[in-house]
Amino acid sequence: MIPILRTVADLRAQVRAWKAEGHVVGVVPTMGALHEGHLSLARAAKRDCGRVITTIFVNPKQFNNPDDLAKYPRTEAADALLLSSVGVDLIFAPDVEEVYPDGFATSISVGGVAGALEGEMRPGHFQGVATVVAKLFGMTQADRAYFGQKDWQQLQVVRQMVRDLNFAVEVIGCETIREADGLAMSSRNARLSAEARGKAGALHAAMTEAAQAIRAGMPEADCLTRVGAAVVAAGFEKVEYIALRDAETLGPVADPARPMRMLAAAWLGGVRLIDNIAV
Ligand code: PAF
Q: Is residue 182 one of the residues assigned to a domain?
């Protein structure tokens, strides 16, 4: 059975031993409730690294909504079976007190790329993400870290932090894994009712159509407006944002020759879904 370590001291001892044997160590940071998207990250890590750690920690600091934190699925036993099946070497699943002991007083605030979109809609979210990811890098001492492109802005925030703070970790962004109808895999999808799940593919379908239209030279604003109208017509309650941004800075598109990304957040059946695609 795959080992599950709970303390930083135990984790450090194992990683030291692996590094002494000459292994490259990869980490896949997660909050658990694993699905095929996470497993694809673990498989990529296994291809590149001699030893792979998956961290499972539902990070309270990145939830700006207490109800979302309370409802976040926790499925450690099932997660361990899935991670064993793809050959992950170790799970690090600390308690909240191990990560944030009494007196913990540091927070990492990434500027620029963290300000827009999710940063505006979920105040404090990226501060919580950056802080815990920095801690997970420090705790695991990993050489490589794997993140999903599903959370595109998070990936850019982590890259910015790693650059700015000279972390000795290589960040690898892996393709979003989708259901047959295009819905991006996410632990939150489990909260969709059967009825809502039937409508959820509309977001990716509308975004894909709009990306094609933008590439064909149609006015961006009209294309984005049409995405909003299409998802509301499909039964989504609310669109928080649909935006076309510079893929790296997430600022407005200043140079259309640079890679662009369309990003969206919308509510369906009481569940907040996010997605993004290249344009
Ligand atoms: O993407 C996630 O699951 C989380 O934001 C992460 C990177 C594990 C930090 O808690």
A: no
Which residue range forms the structural domain that includes residue 259? 187-278
Is there an atom of ligand 1 within 6 Å of 132 CB?
Answer: yes
**Which residues fall within 8 angstroms of residue 145, CB to CB, at 6 or more apart?**
26, 27, 28, 29, 133, 137, 158, 169, 170, 171, 172
Q: What is the CATH number of the domain that holds 244?
A: 3.30.1300.10
Series of mean pLDDT values for 10-residue runs along the chain (279 residues): 97 98 98 97 98 98 92 94 98 98 98 96 97 98 98 98 98 98 95 97 98 96 97 98 97 92 98 97
Residue whose Cα lies nearest atom 8 of ligand 1: it is 30
Task: Mark whether 12 and 136 lie in a shared domain.
Answer: yes
Is residue 26 packed enough to be buried (19+ CB in 10 Å), middle (13-18) or exposed (0-12)? buried
Number of structural domains the chain divides into: 2
Looking at residue 256, what is its pLDDT? Answer: 83
Give the pLDDT score at 61.
97
- Determine the residue of 34, 62, 159, 187 to mutate for testing ligand 1's pocket, defined as the one with the most ligand atoms within 8 A of the Cβ atom: 62
